[in-house]
Design brief:
alpha/beta, 24% strand
């Protein structure tokens, strides 16, 4: 049975924002291997989301880039990077090595902590396919740094026994026509230990290529990050400030 802090629903709404902050983009290299990435920081960024792409993809995944650009327009900085070196990608076992991928994700989190213009921002993780499992495993070991996780068409079930240890607010987004993966996500949802939700996009397949499907993903992901990263950070900031009368 799904716990009281979780819920399941179907998404069919779409909306767009008109105000677009300017965005500064720069290359970033993740040690110790020098994994290539791109950090996009909008003016007055309120949070940072690090992307973990799926099997056979890279930092140039067109779908992840579209999600990242939408988050940038909402004042959320993004980091897209390659979890594997080109020669590592040739071995398909590496693509499904969740322990390896999660370690690379942790290294990216530590790397952004060295950047003075983003190291103070609350961090979220966005994972697709196998990257979703890597995001959950990384979040379980970085609970003091990660504020929210979103999975798009992911395989959170591959996180295995780590799932109950994940206390980070987690949103699972699944296509309504992604048969088999829906069931795997529902099973993973029941095992997750923290606040959790599953949202099903009607008619969408695994890659969310249908008209409006990726827009739905963007709205859901942005809403989750804004609620659990941006809003939570604002509450924490206000709590840290002394009362004016003191």
């Amino acid at each position: 049975m799904i716990g009281p802090l979780s819920h399941s629903s179907t998404f069919s709404r779409d909306s767009k924002r008109k105000d677009h902050p300017s965005v500064v983009s720069r290359e970033m290299w993740i040690p110790p291997l020098g994994l290539a990435g791109t950090l996009n920081r909008p003016d007055e960024a309120r949070a940072l989301v690090i992307f973990a792409h799926g099997s056979g993809s890279s930092q140039f995944s067109p779908r992840n880039i579209q999600v990242a650009e939408a988050l940038n327009r909402r004042g959320i900085a993004t980091l897209l990077f390659d979890l594997l070196l080109p020669q590592e990608e040739e071995d398909r076992q590496n693509v499904f090595d969740i322990a390896l991928l999660s370690q690379r994700l942790k290294q990216a989190v530590h790397r952004v902590a060295e950047e003075p213009d983003v190291n103070f921002l609350p961090i979220g993780l966005f994972g697709a396919s196998t990257g979703a499992a890597a995001a959950l495993v990384a979040a379980s070991g970085l609970s003091d740094r990660i504020g929210a996780v979103v999975s798009r068409g992911g395989r959170p079930d591959l996180a295995g026994d780590v799932l109950p240890l994940v206390k980070i607010p987690t949103l699972l987004i699944v296509g309504g026509a992604d048969y088999g993966v829906i069931e795997l996500n529902q099973q993973a949802l029941e095992r997750l230990g923290g606040e959790k939700s599953i949202q099903i996009v009607p008619g969408a397949t695994h890659l969310f290529e249908e008209a409006g499907a990726l827009d739905a993903v963007i709205e859901l992901a942005a809403g989750w990050f804004e609620s659990h990263l941006v809003a939570g950070n604002l509450r924490a900031t206000k709590a840290d400030k002394p009362d004016a009368g003191q």
